[in-house]
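In the current project phase, we have settled on a layout for protein records. A sample record is reproduced below.
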Amino acid sequence: MTVHQQDLNLTRGMLFGNEMSFKTFFDDMFPRLYRFVLVRVNGLESTAEEIAQATLCAVVQKLSSYRGEASLFTWICTFARHEISHHMKKHGRASVSLTEDSPEIRAALESLASTAPDAELEQNELSRLVYVALDHLNPKYREVLTWKYLDGLSVNEIAMRLEAGPKSVESTLTRARNSFRDGFSSLLNPSASGRYVHE
């Protein structure tokens, strides 16, 4: 059974009022959604919690429109992006732009969600390409991205390692994300760049 079919079964259970389906939905989705929102609202925990809750409430009201064309979490994230944008504009703040928000990376991440046996090779290849892109980055960019996204370090922790200020680290992360995005996009669509990147 694919992830999307499991998601469809879960939403159908909720539509029929199954309490266990609702519990599974909130237990699984809220922590993931909270992490998704948190990084996009500059680490404001109360804001992230508020937006995550508002998003899930909106999603529950629209469950009947879910068709399983994307994973349930990906579908929920479209609601979250709307809630984030609305909240940040209302309070005069700017949301964070991340590498994984680009259409190419979002498509790759959606592909990684599949657990179907015939998708295993594609999943392994996408994972490999992520590391290929990292390996071809400027060493400093590779280091900060690894610390941030693979090791889970905060900006302040990275700043301490580099003996630099948080704003300097954020600037470096932005440049590193842009560099990674460009490299990874060319790996996903080599015909657009006119060349292949090999290990």
